[in-house]
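Recap slide: HSP20-like chaperone, sequence and predicted structure.
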Amino acid sequence: VLWAQRSSNVDAEKNFIYLTISVPDVPRENLKLDLKPTGLTFEGHSDTLKKTYHVELEFYAEIDPEASKVNHTARDVEMKLRKKELSESYWPRLLKDTKKAHFLKTDFDKWVDEDEQNEAAEDDFANFGGMGE
């Protein structure tokens, strides 16, 4: 699971979490994603790799599932999760629990330092268009 974030205290569109769950060869019909304000549950099965993936995450703070977007590809499930509370500062971590999760890594391809986020290239998720689940 990879993640990065942006924050804004004035523009909800710029106040989100990028979350990518890497699950190769999991077709849409074999995955179940339950997105809630406080977390998510993901389960998927790859027939070709004969593997079942499962992860449950409890977020540091609330998100807005209605305003969030999901994009499923052959390699992963990408999400752009809208943070519920507008805030200038980043979440200190993704999860509520302070214990380090071995499967959770920073997505350095999408990461931008807090003080440089306004200069960041807008939306790496151009392919999200009208995607949703």
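The radius of gyration is 15 Å.
Strands lie at 2-6, 16-22, 31-36, 39-46, 51-58, 63-72, 76-83, 105-106.
(End of recap.)
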